[in-house]
Amino acid sequence: MQFSSQQRKLLRSVTDSTTVLASTVHCSFNRRAAEQRCLALLHDCNTLSKLTQVHTHILKLGLQNNPLVLTKFTSTSSELYAIDYASSFLFSPESDTRLYDTFLFNTIIRAYAQTNHSKDKAICMYNLMLHYNVLPNKFTYPFVLKACAGIVNLNLGKSVHGSVIKFGFDNDVHVQNTMVHMYCCGREGIEFARKVFDEMRKMDSVSWSAMIGGYARLGRSSDAVSLFRQMQIAGVCPDEITMVSVLSACTDLGALELGKWVESYIEKERVQKTVELCNALIDMFAKCGNVDKAIKFFRSMEERTIVSWTSVIVGLAMHGRGIEAVALFEEMIGSGMEPDDVVFIGLLSACSHSGLVDRGRDYFDMMGKNFGIVPKIEHYGCMVDMLCRAGLISEALEFVQQMPIEPNPVVWRTLINACRAHGELKLGEKITRQLIRSEPMHESNYVLLSNIYAKMFNWEKKMRIRELMDMKGMRKVPGSTMIELGNEIYEFVAGDKSHNQYSEIYEMVDEMGREMKQAGYVPTTSEVLLDIDNEDKEDTLNTHSEKLAIAFALLNTPPGTPIRIVKNLRVCSDCHTATKFISKIYNREIIMRDRNRFHHFKDGMCSCRDFW
């Protein structure tokens, strides 16, 4: 068949187009095959050496600018703790970042946000994302805000908050939840967190949990409990994370009855009992005064972590049950659980509170010899505390002077308190003056020196220290005592008249004073650090917060029932002595938690035995 010139041209054009199309289809198929091959290799990649091999493979196949492959490469690198390696590849001079999309940047930002030491790079990547005009989406900001939370930079968090509003994601519940968490990571941001929380149109259990957890972490335990009650009224079902935060708040407040209610609520609502939640229950019972329940709960656990063992050991230490704490530690070692540095802090504390000086020395030596644990300042602090409690002041001072690490102010203050308690006042004065030189703006150092001068009856020097504190704008932390009654937490301070029952409370305090004096109580007026006569000193002692809380409890609880109180500072020796008398006169067991430990008063005796 003969074709005209025009027909031959048309046929040639169709043939050429078909060839080009076939070639394009073939190339496209090859690219997809190569892409799938790389994705499969990355899926199976579980070592850094394999990752570098896949990296080479990507370059050979020309996929170094393929967003899908690069995204998978980044997530795999993150899983192998090699995100910096991925970043150097993604942003090398040869990279064509114009092809990068939101999903790829989100993956990089998330990877950096999840690291322990490179969260700031997540912010850098977010800024780079905006620089390249890649628009963030609602999945971008939870990662960016988590990075801000880890950096604990309020101004940075506020800046990102502004971007969230600018891009219109301020009503997304997941973004809002992370924002609440971010603001809760610093004391200065907690009110901003509450503002975001209160303005949320829609909340889920994560929203409530973030806010409750923020309050609990920052020591605003009453607010955490109050918000939890609002959560119940709102009909939102809490998860185990919420319950851990609520239990933490109960622990801080010493609110045993509330803690018991939380336990029953967990059972009733069938909240999943994770190991973390079980550990929180153990910690709550131990630190709210019912260490036997903590032990019972511990024994019922099928799975135990080092935190489980540590919580019980620390609880026993706080209650002065050092021999049981030591026995539990030995049981832990026998079970094959490897101890860490934290459990040794609990163990040494147990030895300290129970006067087990020789055992404490042995365990301190055992840390390095048997388990390769290098003692930290907390372990040295426990040893100093143990020696001081045993009255071995000279040995404690020698121990401090021979420490291979610099003693911190806590160690020195422990030694100073012991000097004051055991009459080594000149030594205490010398150490305190040295401490003030190194820490001139720490108010507790001046309080210590003031107390030493009061013990020396040197009122002139004491007054001079107090005047110096006033000049520097320093204030002593006021002592307060909390008590839980009828689902409410009541707080008392010295000389408190704010309670609506204060008249009856003060009448009960007077009655307690008369009954105690008849039983042989002599007020420890040396505890009153004021240059006033003894009668006024006794009046001052009678209105200490501990006595007011106990009087309130005697008025409002049935005879013979236990009284539980929590003191924010260390109980003074006069209140300690008075509480012994009160326990016997009124036939009450009184469980007092102060800053250092528990005191169980019963029949005129205290569990601590060696109070100083």
Helix percent band = 55-70%
SS content category: mainly alpha
Radius of gyration: 33 Å
Q: What is the helix tally?
A: 30
Low-confidence stretches: 14-29, 531-536
Major sheet strand order = 2-1-3-4-5-6
Strand content: under 5%
Mean pLDDT: 87
Largest sheet entry: 6 strands, mixed
Tell me the total number of β-strands: 6
Instruction: Indicate the overall shape.
Output: elongated
The rounded distance between the terminal residues' Cα atoms is 120 Å
InterPro entries: DYW_dom, E_motif, PPR_At4g14850-like_plant, PPR_rpt, TPR-like_helical_dom_sf
Pfam families: DYW_deaminase (PF14432), E_motif (PF20431), PPR (PF01535), PPR_1 (PF12854), PPR_2 (PF13041)
Protein name: DYW domain-containing protein
Family: Belongs to the PPR family. PCMP-H subfamily.
Tell me what the structure shows.
The protein is mainly α. Among the domains are: 32-89, no CATH class; 419-472, no CATH class; 481-606, no CATH class. The chain contains 30 helices and six strands. The chain has a six-stranded mixed beta sheet with strand order 2-1-3-4-5-6, covered by helices on one side. Strand 1 (480-485) and strand 2 form a beta hairpin. Helix 12 (221-233) packs across helix 13 and helix 17 (306-318) runs parallel beside helix 19. The longest helix is centred in the N-terminal third of the chain and has 39 residues, at 5-43. It is elongated and about 135 Å long.
